[in-house]
Amino acid sequence: MRVLAIVPAYNEEESLQSTVEELMASCPDVDILVINDGSRDATGAICDREGYNHLDMPINCGLTSGFQAGMKYALRHGYDAAVQFDADGQHRPEYIAEMARAMEGQGADIVIASRFLEGERGHSLRHIGNSLISRLIRATTGASITDPTSGMRMFRRSTFKAFAGGMDMGPEPDAVALLVRKGGARVVEVPASMRERQAGESYLSPAKAVTYMGRTCLNILFFQWFR
């Protein structure tokens, strides 16, 4: 199975090289595409210097547009699967092979690296929001997903067109719910642990995190019926 790792990167000069090098060392058979999302730092220069396969977005377009560009690339170049992989060092590349085996062996259309599959949950606002989103997805689609907010997801080729051609299709829980409900996508999870961000700062401040959770819940509960 030909797998493309899509690595969105916005101002990730401090962690990009170590992330890509670890990914190449752990998964030599996985191709990599860095999406330099209009970075203002040396992210693009690092891609050029190290010879990374990358796309340069003309401005900062955001995660949705960057991921869509990666999915268009995967579709046009005949990949069988694409995995979303953060540039900040949080994701562990050793799980990619296990995700690919789950996709092939269990007939999954989407494989999620779950931090909570084995029952570990906290009581922070992030954990509470994840639990709420999980319940809303189950209520609206019937699918049980323990970690819908995990950013490490693998998508089968059959889902590429939805992302490549849909203006509102980003790599988010509401898009996963939509693919399950309308497209009949099968979701499988594999147990995983994540690291803390290795460098830089997350764009999700506490206020933005609350907004993100509220918007995602509304999309799943109400707006997905009109998409």
TrEMBL record:
The keyword Transferase applies. InterPro entries: Glyco_trans_2-like, Glycosyltransferase_2, Nucleotide-diphossugar_trans. GO terms for molecular function: transferase activity. It holds the Pfam family Glycos_transf_2. It comes from the Bacteria. Keywords: Transferase. Transmembrane segments: none annotated. Residues 6-161 form the Glycosyltransferase 2-like domain. Belongs to the glycosyltransferase 2 family. This is Glycosyl transferase.
